[in-house]
Amino acid sequence: MNIELLADHSESIPMLADWYISEWEPYYGVNGPGNARADLESRRNRDQIPLGFVAAEGGELYGIAALDLDEATGLTPSVVGLFVAPSQRGRGIATALLESAGFLAKRLGHSRLYVSTAVLGGLLIRVGWRSIGETEFLNKEQGSIYVRDL
Fold it and tell me: What is the pTM of this model?
């Protein structure tokens, strides 16, 4: 499996937008405030944030994440939009995307990386992140904020 820039997979944005809509329907769905396709389009950069990247193998995409401003916390660079296809979960893809996020952020001159989540806390702690606080997401769900020094 390779981690590749979203800019090299622009043709997949409609499929990735469908992933986002199905996973985060209250935000990206018909009545939500978000626009999955616009968010993904904005992340097609190569050398600046927002910067999207995908887990790919043999022409298939298995997951996606991005470095961007986290609207819930105001922290940047943050890992946002981390999604792994349900059939591919448990294979280390989220971990690979998180590792790549750190590499890309460091390459762009950052010394810290953030993520806010309500579901990935256990994974983040296992791979070296530390909790630094709590946040409330736009959907009013509570989550935790994590940081990793690069």
Answer: 0.94
